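Recap slide: Nickel pincer cofactor biosynthesis protein LarB, sequence and predicted structure.
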Amino acid sequence: MDSKHEILTLLRSVADGSVTPEQALLNLKEAPFEDLDYAKIDLHRSVRQGASEVIYGAGKTPEQIRGIVTAMGEKGCRNILVTRISPEAADCLCEAVPADYHPLPRLAVVYPEERKLRGNVVVATGGTSDIPVAEEAALTAETMGNRVTRLYDVGVAGLHRLLSNLDELMSARCVVAVAGMEGALASVIGGLVDCPVIAVPTSVGYGASFGGLSALLSMLNSCASGCSVVNIDNGFGAGYLASMINQMEGIEETEQGEERGTK
């Protein structure tokens, strides 16, 4: 029982009498999580949040990662994200189950399936060195069913590069701004667009950047309204939040269209 659709189907079966309430209750009781001793897999995550549980690969053995995704796959989970996974663990994973590994952001998508992409999320970077974090954000959003436009190396050192992409920025439902150094990109984009901006500070920079702390503080002190900040190098968190914003916008547009159709 790993999706809202399956639970809705079960409830409709109870309503039409093809499934007894007792059978439905048993199915729901068995669903919440599976205990593997070293991990307790949250099988209701997609019901509550719209996406399967995401696996943080760093610190886990290849065998643990393989065991978790295999158990999830047996329950019907697809497009399972494994973040911060080493190349060695990824090789082991790809030998065991269908998986796409992206070495730059160190991210794997297990049991990949095509999804209909909705809306438009823009992921922009200040420089080329920020791309690994940006790709983590972009691939996370794409895996969750969002259309992503990438604008890389458009930092404030050459502002004309960013301004040449105003059409893409203005049509976005959410922008993820990824930058190190002084982290000014998020403020500039925040002053140009009418949608939420998610700022991602990166650890790119010389000594006084303090491993991304300088960019983090700059972004937290942004004077641009509608700009929020995630942790240093947290591309996954930014991509996940961007997906939630984009999907909510899509739901609102659908509901407004239905209301207009009934008038």
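Residues 187 and 224 are 5 Å apart (CA to CA).
DSSP finds eleven helices and eleven strands in the chain.
(End of recap.)
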